[in-house]
């Protein structure tokens, strides 16, 4: 990656991005940036790694990929400074998903979709595959959002056979510099609009845009919850709190939150 050119294109007076750093390797960009956030790092700090040796997803699941095969980065946001109440901060990972999916669709020329709550999907050989994940962590009055996106991985490099990458989805470009620039600019635009409406997902258009790009909606799913519990139903909506609304047997609509989900799986409909 050309850190100098990326910094010149992204860090501008009056813009969201205030610091931009690329490191060759680290355990986890999220872990590093959470430490910096607690030490007072400014909003808009961006940390990118060419390789992560201890990348994490939700529930401390491992995220692995070869060096320089993807985009591995974290961003630091301070929504309280814009007057966004804390009860709306749960929309930030969904905002990152909407922004990234749109940017990658345009720049890589690949249709992308969102799997609630934190995955990005592409189609490889007629199958939906996960190629990206998002992890948001609270650090005092800041939120650190980390993203891992498989860009150039070949089939023999995938962490699991069911994963995907932009290259395997026949992207028109796998040049990571313009891809990262597009993602960060899109996040900045969406974040600015969301903050302008004090985090209101309806007024900012975020709730509608997330629902429009969410492949989970309209499907029969099984939500696996802690303690071996589960909920099965059709995913019918994303509510104002960013929760997935399931229409269960008997017509009851029940919301489930990202914090309650261990796994969310599609299940075949009964004929």
UniProtKB/TrEMBL annotation:
A single MF term (Gene Ontology): ligase activity
UniProt key word Ion transport: no
Highest taxon of the lineage: Bacteria
Keyword Ligase: yes
Record key words, sorted: Biotin, Ligase
Positions of the BPL/LPL catalytic domain: 9-195
Membrane-spanning ranges: none
Enzyme Commission identifier(s): 6.3.4.15
CDD domains, alphabetized: BPL
Pfam family for this entry, one: BPL_C
Classification via NCBIfam families: birA_ligase (TIGR00121)
Protein name as annotated: biotin--[biotin carboxyl-carrier protein] ligase
Upper lineage: Bacteria, Bacillati, Actinomycetota, Actinomycetes, Kitasatosporales
